[in-house]
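Researcher: Next sequence.
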Amino acid sequence: MAHSFGLILANRAVVLGAIKARDLLDMTVDAEASGVFDAVWVGDSLVAKPRLESVTLLSALAGVTSRVRLGVGCMATFVHRHPVMLAHQWASLDQLSNGRSWLAVCLGGPNEANAAQALEHAVMSVQASERVGRLEEGIVVLRRLFHETKVSHHGRFYSFDGLTIEPRPVQNPVPIWIASNPTGLTWKGGASASDAVVERSFRRVARLADGWMTNKLSPEEFRAQFSRIGAMAREEGRDPAKIGSALYHNINICESRDKGLEESKTFLDTYYTAKFGPAFVEGWTVSGPPKQCIDELRRYFDAGLGHMSLRLTSWDQRGQLERFLGEIAPAFA
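Model: Next structure:
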């Protein structure tokens, strides 16, 4: 099965003062020139985890690249963004990149995550209980606005008549993926979602999405869960082979696995303003000498994963990128 790598840019690191905005553009140019990466990803948040705004950053990246796909994973503010405005922005990005945009949407965190997450919903006048409804309706609206003219829609959250958005996207259809991890490691170390919530989450991907992005899963867990989504897709009258898969993962290449995980924990704690447990970090991170990292990555691809998105969990972003290109990537050429 074909597989590919994506580079996750640490666009929150600009707010934290660890790197400059220009560094993100330079790393993207290097990533594309290497021929190793199929995509470059950025994160998204408003006030919960402030960072460079995702669509703006992707538009800048479109101007310095010509081949790599440009993704947001996941767009946690999707439920806050009016789909008419987002359709205009995203279609423009698709034009600027000549059809290389890749949209992975998600629900964002619940109010219980932290006070900043609750504030993010509040300032945008969105109830946390509305997130699922807004995500599902928003996807439906986007798909119609991207590819139809004189669109009329009357839903629970959005209503309009006879609307045409221009310019049109280059891609037809524009890929819209859903990012979720209802059974993955939890940030607080608590229980995973209920069976009913998991069922609805997988069913949503099977019914609405071009692909599934997830994280914090072992290769065995990924294989089992993606198989469930495939079975549901068949029930929805869709071809499971047309639903893509991606894992949002971390990597730290280090001669000592323990030191790599320790550095990753320090990075992630700072990046997310959190205090993660060692088991959480270990379950979300490939770490160790090159051979060990290669073996761990291969396990995911052997489990059927299509795309591995990797964030470099070190403040030495440039050094880790060079090590990945020189010591890891050749094994997958």
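Model: The chain has one domain: 4-332. The chain is about 45% helix and 20% strand.
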